[in-house]
Write a structure and sequence with these properties.
Conserved hypothetical protein from pyrococcus furiosus pfu- 392566-001, ParB domain; single chain
Amino acid sequence: MEIINTDINSLLPFPNNPRRGNVNKLKESLEANGQYKPIVVQASTRYILAGNHLWQAAKEIGWNTINVVEVDVNATQAKKIVATDNRLGELGTYDEQELLDLLQDISLEGTGYESADVDDLLALLEEQETAPAFSAEPVMVDGVGGGSELSQENVQRRPTLSERAQHYAERTVRLLMCEYPNSHYIWIQERLGELRVKYNVDSNGDAIMRAVAEATGTEAPSD
């Protein structure tokens, strides 16, 4: 496909695009890394099918042109491309250790990651390493002759609630994990960034603790 450098004002955002991107992070990326992949545009309508928020970020930082790839598709195909581009990015997963190795080897400027994200990855990996292990126990199985015998296969057993409680009671550092829809996650990350600046701290954990202390009028334990 041919990459074309195009007047940025000649393009149109896709109507009712369901995706809500983080334009501020994309602006940081463009300023740090430039445009390293083209956006995808429907040739007949000039609608942006992939890269709507990248285009918006480029406009906000004053770009006059942007690299595009044009595709000759009808309205139904265009909608499928929009849906596919939005969805497939969500379906991927990470090897957390390899991601951590990558982030620790580069400057985080313009990547969308912050030092607090590295802290969270470190905490997650530490949590995985110290999670209570399942114990292997022999189990009784029916023998061929109708009797029962001990199986030599290792069968994983889920730890009991009391075993989990004991495991976590013995820990001095704990990981607090919260799940949010993507739009809420982006909003929270942006607000945590503001709180880190407000409290002059480097990690999300410290920012949350300071905010909770301020909201409740209490102080965290010194240990």
